[in-house]
Amino acid sequence: MTENIDSYIEEVESFNSGNQDEIEQFRIKFLSKKGIISTLFTQLKDVPADQKKEFGQRLNLLKNKATDKVKILKEQSVSSAQEPVVDDLTSPPEPLPLGTRHPVSIVRNEIIDIFSKIGFTISEGPEIEDDWHVFSGLNFPDEHPARDMQDTFFIEKNPDILLRTHTSSVQIRVMENEKPPIRKIFPGRVFRNEVISARAHCIFHQVEGLYIDKNVSFADLKQTLLFFAKEMFGENTQIRLRPAFFPFTEPSAEMDVSCTICKGKGCNVCKYTGFLEILGCGMVDPNVLESSDISSVEYTGFAFGMGIERVAMLKYHINDLRLFFENDTRFLNQFKGDIT
Ligand code: DAH
After folding, report:
1. Range of the domain at 257
2. Cβ-count burial of 33 within 10 angstroms (0-12 exposed, 13-18 middle, 19+ buried)?
3. Does ligand 1 lie within 6 Å of residue 208's CB atom?
4. Does residue 168 share a domain with residue 68?
5. 146-168 confidence digits (pLDDT tens)
6. Ligand 1 pocket, residue 168 CB under 6 Å
7. pTM
């Protein structure tokens, strides 16, 4: 009778599988209630007395071997399922997704590079400002509409603490602390209480420029801005200055560049004018110089201010300002080649 058991022992010893279903089949066959081993145990009572001992020992051996085998194979199949399957050790690793520089940063850096070529250095000022630096020091009359809640985010009233609505505020900060000659640009973030649309946002970025020295003229302003326009938009770019009004410059102008799309021929982007507005500028108003303790007899200066998003829109032909703030990677990834 024990030969029978021995052949089962052999079968158990030689069984091998990494497949969980096969291991389960094996367990059922040998170790379940109606399996081979418990059937053999029920036969024990019929075994002749002189063979009982050996039969019992062989049967226990079979049971232990089968139990161990199931335990080991189950453990192995679980741990191998957790191990990653490595097919080809020479294949390259998964590439790490690389970030890209934001188009506003790209254009800001480009503006900084262009002006640094002609001797402008950078200063920055606070985003939370007082009335003096944003309005009064810049010659805004008390009743000027820009001071209105409609345009300005106030943090406190009396004395007024507010989010700066333009980077012109840094002009005042710099003039307080430095004596001419001053030749600087001020990049930064500004805030206006605007309804968000394709053309306006409540947060955007500007670069302000200020040049104060003896004998600075409007011709210097024009040459500086022409140089900027050609560097930014290409050698054949033309500029056009239209008279305008700003409280802090006199005379003031708005500058247009020849349309970046039709090159001045006329298209629907430039509304068939051939030009696109890009910045405000002018000669620093003597009141502004004097209120910062700079002699308007000895010194003159020019200032200009432009929106970075606006320059980026013209450069990359983007028609919705909101795209800059949504951080949709499908939009941002298009600027991959432009890391500067
Ligand atoms: N601060 C103006 C604005 O936010 C832009 C500007 C216009 C700045 C004329 C200047 C300037 O320095 O001279 O709309």
Report:
1. 103-335
2. exposed
3. yes
4. no
5. 787 668 999 998 889 999 999 99
6. yes
7. 0.73
